[in-house]
Amino acid sequence: MSVEQSSGETARGAARWAAARTRLLHQIAADTAETASWTGRPALAARVMRAIACVPREAFVAPSDGDVAYDNRPLGIGCGQTISQPFIVALMSDLLDLAPGERVLEIGTGCGYQSAVLAELGAAVFSVERVPELAEAARQRLRRLGYERVHVRHGDGFDGWPQEAPFDGIIVTAAPEELPPALPPQLATGGRLVIPIGPRGDNQMLWRCVKQADGTLEMRRMLPVAFVPMLAEPSPSR
Ligand code: SAH
After folding, report:
1. 135 occurs within a structural domain
2. What does the alpha-carbon distance between residue 176 and residue 204 come to, in Å, rounded to a whole number?
3. Structural domain harbouring 58
4. Is residue 230 part of a domain?
5. Does ligand 1 lie within 6 Å of residue 130's CB atom?
6. 81 CB within 6 A, ligand 1
7. Does 127 participate in catalysis according to the annotation?
């Protein structure tokens, strides 16, 4: 293949991803408007939309899923886990109300897509993943893509990451049945916790919690959601 041919194909590929990304942003805006009676947010912050537009989602899915990378739905990433629906990633990022330079704890790195979106918002991201293979793959992928402010650790998210606390935001991307008690103490005063809570295999409620000066959490219901369960048992070794 000549150099001209291959650069022509690269340009066509880039144009295809750009078109798919624009379509996705429209769908996220429509979903946001549709769910505003729940969330109280008729539109997401422009910087959150820009962050979604910047992250190459095709780099986070299996190569065979390239054609559907920008569909507004979850996709399988191996080890029985999923990459979350882009609208939910965008909404949860918005609900964190992050200022650049703030520190965020993420529970459930998965493929690292949500971590990359948070990094595009200027946050320093500390992400914990229970499945060692996923943690290692996400670490390598994020490094390859240049996300140097994302730190990935293999561990149990029920413990949080106390050595790096306090955090300005905590985002949990797997659903526990109850609020994990170790997490609120790792949140700074004024910090935001965004978390789905509810039974396995059913819908859960997405909550936005804000840590008050007296140490209590003000908790608001945001939206019914469907997440994979947050598991307490150790991950099976392979
Ligand atoms: N944030 C991801 C979504 C990952 S799906 C994204 O951007 O697409 C949820 C992830 O949570 C899975 O990878 C699962 O292995 C992980 N998980 C489940 N229970 C966990 C726990 N106790 N601690 C840390 N990670 C956990």
Report:
1. yes
2. 9
3. 3-225
4. no
5. yes
6. yes
7. no
* Model pTM score: 0.94
**Which residue's alpha carbon is nearest to atom 8 within ligand 1?**
83
Which numbered atom of ligand 1 lies nearest the CA of 82? Answer: 5
- For a mutational test of ligand 1's pocket, the pick from 96, 130, 186, 227, i.e. the residue with the most ligand atoms closer than 8 A to its C-beta, is 130
Rounded Cα distance between 196 and 116, Å, is: 20
d(CA 205, CA 216): 20
Annotated catalytic residue, options 84, 93, 115, 127: 84
Contact by Cβ (8 Å): 110, 82: yes
Where would I find the beta strands (DSSP E) of 114-231? Answer: 124-129, 150-154, 167-172, 187-197, 204-211, 217-225
In a domain, 60, yes or no: yes
Identify whether 237 is part of a domain. Answer: no
Take atom 20 of ligand 1 and give the residue whose Cα is closest.
230
C-alpha 236 to ligand 1 mean position (Å): 15
Structural domains counted in the chain = 1
For every one of its 238 residues, what pLDDT tens digit does the chain have, with 9 covering 90 and above?
444 445 666 777 788 888 999 999 999 999 999 999 999 999 999 999 999 999 999 999 988 888 899 999 999 888 878 889 999 999 999 999 999 999 999 999 999 999 999 999 999 999 999 999 999 999 999 999 999 999 999 999 999 999 999 999 999 999 999 999 999 999 999 999 999 999 998 899 999 999 999 999 999 999 999 999 999 866 655 4
Instruction: Give the CATH number for residue 18.
Output: 3.40.50.150
Q: Ligand 1 in contact with 141 (CB < 6 A)? A: no
